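Board notes (copied after class):
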Amino acid sequence: MFGQNFIIDENVIESALSSIELDKETLVIEVGPGAGSLTYKLAKYASKVLCYEIDETLKDILDNNLKEYDNVEIIFDDFLKRNIKEDIKS
């Protein structure tokens, strides 16, 4: 249904993390967190990770994989149809 590729390679995740400046003041917006492999690492360092996932079949997987973080918000909707400014305020 959706053209999805999930990042699971730890080397790719670490490479992505090392290429950005990330601290407890950073808001990260992630489009398509998939199973949450990158999201999990982002949540360790960012103040908030706001994710947009269109595939609602991933809800249980994401809830389970990210349950230890209270700084992750996942919106199950089409990113292109959202009002990002409003989502950030919530």
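Comment from the instructor: The chain has a mean pLDDT of 92. Helices lie at 10-18, 37-45, 59-65, 84-89.
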